[in-house]
Design a protein that fits this description.
With 354 residues, this protein is of the alpha+beta class. 27% of the residues lie in helices and 29% in strands. It has two domains: 213 residues, no CATH class; 111 residues, no CATH class.
Length: 354
C-alpha cells in the first residue's frame, strides 16, 4: 500500500462489556509514544477515517483474556504525578527521552495533595514541541484521581481507568477487575502504555518511571471504518456477492461528475503515451466511475454515489491500487495531466463506504 504501511494483517475483535471493539496493529515496533496521537491523526487524514489511540480500559480488555499478540503500545492517557508525600507545585516535570523534556502545568490543582492528574482523550495538538520541550497545559481537562500511598492491586478509577480506590488482594473477589499500580517517589509524567509484559496480562500504570518511550502502535477502528481497513490490509470481502459499491463523497454530485469527465480526458491522453501496464488500473477506475449514479439531492454538499459491477470492498482496493499507480505516473507524466487524478484519488480515498 503506497503512502502508509500497516503492520497488522487482520482486525482484532475485543469484547468490552458486551460491545465489540476493533483493534489494529499499525506498527510492531519503532514508535515513539509521544508520536502516537499525531500518527493516528495522519492515518485519519490519509484515509478519511476516525481511528483513535485505545483507552486503558480497551487495552485491558484486549489483553485479558488475550485474543492475539500485541506489542507494548501507547494508550490514550497521560498521568502527571508530583513528588510523593508533597503538595503539587506549579508544574510537574519529566523527561521522555534524552532530547525531550516534558512539563505539565498544574493550574488550579497547585497545592493539592494526595492526587495524580490524569488526562484521557489526548489529541495530536497536545504534543506540540518547542525547543525540545513539550508543555502540557491541560489542567482544565485533567481528572484529579485520589492516589493510594502504596502500590498494589486496585479497582480502576471510573473515569480514567487509573488504579485507585479500593485495594484488592490477589485471587479474591473482584481481582479479575483490578489493575496494578506502581508508585515511585516522583515527580513523573507518564504516557501510559499497555505494559503487556506482566504475567497477569493486564495493563498497569507506573508512576515511577517510563517502562518504555518506544514500542509498537495499536489503534481502535470504529465500525464505520472496518470496510476500509479490511481492504487496506487484505482482509476478506464482507459482501463478496455484492455487485454495487456505495460511497459518500465530500462534494456535490455535479462537481464529482465534472471531475470524472476531466479525469477521463486526462487519463485517455496519458494512455496514448504511457506504458500500458501502468495505465491498466487508472483506465479500469475510469470505466467504473463513468457509470457512477448519484442519489439524493443533486446540490447537496455531499453526495452518495453508487458504482455497479463491484463491491465496496473491491472498489476501495482498486482505489488504493490507483494510488500506487499514480505515484509511478507522477514521475513520468506532466503535472497538468495529473491534477484531476490527484484530486480524484483524494476524494475516493477519504469517502465513506457502505
Amino acid at each position: 500500500m503506497a503512502g502508509f504501511e500497516i503492520s497488522g494483517k487482520k482486525l482484532i475483535n475485543v469484547n468490552l462489556r458486551g460491545q465489540t471493539r476493533h483493534l489494529l496493529v499499525v506498527r510492531d515496533s519503532g514508535i515513539q509514544f509521544s508520536d502516537a496521537h499525531p500518527l493516528a491523526e495522519r492515518i485519519n487524514r490519509e484515509f478519511g477515517t476516525d481511528v483513535r489511540v485505545p483507552s486503558l480500559v480497551v487495552a485491558n480488555a484486549a489483553q485479558h483474556p488475550r485474543k492475539a499478540w500485541l506489542p507494548d503500545f501507547p494508550i490514550d492517557l497521560l498521568v502527571a504525578h508530583g513528588e510523593k508525600g508533597k503538595p503539587l507545585g506549579r508544574e510537574i516535570t519529566g523527561t521522555f527521552s534524552e532530547k525531550t523534556r516534558m512539563v505539565f502545568l498544574t493550574g488550579k490543582y497547585c497545592g493539592k495533595s494526595g492526587i495524580v492528574l490524569a488526562v484521557p482523550g489526548l489529541t495530536a495538538a497536545d504534543f506540540s514541541m518547542s525547543r525540545g520541550k513539550i508543555t502540557f497545559d491541560l489542567a482544565d481537562r485533567a481528572v484529579p484521581v485520589p492516589i493510594p500511598e502504596e502500590g498494589g492491586w486496585y479497582l480502576p478509577h471510573e473515569k480514567t481507568g487509573v488504579p485507585s480506590g479500593t485495594q484488592v488482594l490477589p485471587n479474591t473477589k473482584n481481582w479479575e477487575l483490578s489493575e496494578y499500580l506502581w508508585i515511585g517517589p516522583g515527580p513523573s509524567i507518564v504516557l501510559a502504555s499497555s505494559d503487556s509484559f506482566s504475567s497477569e496480562d493486564r495493563a498497569s500504570v507506573h508512576l515511577d518511571y517510563h517502562i518504555s518511550s518506544e514500542g509498537g502502535m495499536v489503534v481502535e477502528v470504529p465500525e464505520k471504518d472496518i470496510l476500509k481497513f479490511n481492504a487496506l490490509i487484505g482482509g476478506r470481502d464482507p459482501s463478496p456477492g455484492s455487485r454495487k459499491a456505495s460511497m459518500t463523497i465530500g462534494m456535490p454530485a455535479a462537481e464529482f461528475q465534472k471531475l470524472s469527465a476531466l479525469f477521463y480526458s486526462h487519463i485517455h491522453t496519458l494512455a496514448g503515451t504511457s506504458n500500458a501496464g501502468i495505465m491498466a488500473v487508472p483506465l479500469r477506475l475510469n470505466a467504473m466511475i463513468e457509470g457512477a449514479k448519484p442519489a439524493g439531492q443533486p446540490d447537496s454538499a455531499t453526495a452518495t454515489m453508487t458504482v455497479s459491477g463491484i463491491s465496496s470492498h473491491r472498489f476501495y482496493k482498486l482505489v488504493m491500487e490507483f494510488r500506487e499507480n499514480l505515484e509511478i505516473l507522477s514521475k513520468v507524466a506532466a503535472d497538468s495531466l495529473l491534477k484531476s487524478a490527484h484530486r480524484l484519488d483524494r476524494v475516493l480515498r477519504t469517502a465513506q463506504y457502505e
